[in-house]
Design goal:
The protein has five helices and no strands. The N and C termini lie far apart (37 Å). It has helices at 3-23, 33-50, 57-77, 102-111, 122-134. By secondary structure, it is an all-alpha fold. The longest helix has 21 residues, at 3-23. The chain has one domain (1-134). Pfam families: Complex1_LYR. This is Complex 1 LYR protein domain-containing protein. InterPro entries: Complex1_LYR_dom, Complex1_LYR_LYRM1, LYRM1.
């Protein structure tokens, strides 16, 4: 995909998020409308700034898909906050006495929904890399 088209899609996504945030109405607690609107905008700003230096087109495309998925979930469930995930029990971290296998990491990565990729912390990534190297 060309660089200009990707740039256009990123800007279009950002504008869409900001536009939705200004028209957002809280369903369950109308008094929290302003709080949810601010959360929506702040999350968008934070994640776009965090990923502004990404150059890999595949990674950019994945972030675009994540943003679109989060918009669709927020609009469908009328909840701007990330949804909880029910992972299969075999993909949960084991106790500290056992070393995890490569397939367990792969299963965990495949089980994580795309709309939660940006919530992965650097500590988790570093821990996974250290345990991966020891296998």
């Amino acid at each position: 995909m060309s660089k200009n088209l990707t740039y256009f899609r990123v800007l279009q996504l950002y504008k869409r998020i900001i536009k939705i945030s200004y028209s957002w109405q809280a369903i369950n607690h109308p008094s929290k409308t302003l709080e949810e609107q601010i959360y929506f905008r702040n999350q968008a700003r934070e994640l776009f700034r965090k990923n502004k230096n990404v150059k890999d087109s595949n990674e950019i495309e994945e972030h675009i898909r994540e943003g679109e998925a989060r918009i669709e979930l927020a609009c469908h469930y009328r909840n701007p906050y990330p949804r909880l995930v029910n992972l299969p029990t075999y993909s949960l971290p084991p106790n500290r006495n056992r070393i995890r296998f490569k397939s367990e990491y792969e299963t965990e990565d495949m089980s994580r929904p795309i709309y939660l990729k940006s919530f992965e912390t650097k500590e988790e990534t570093l821990d996974n890399d250290e345990q991966f190297k020891s296998n």
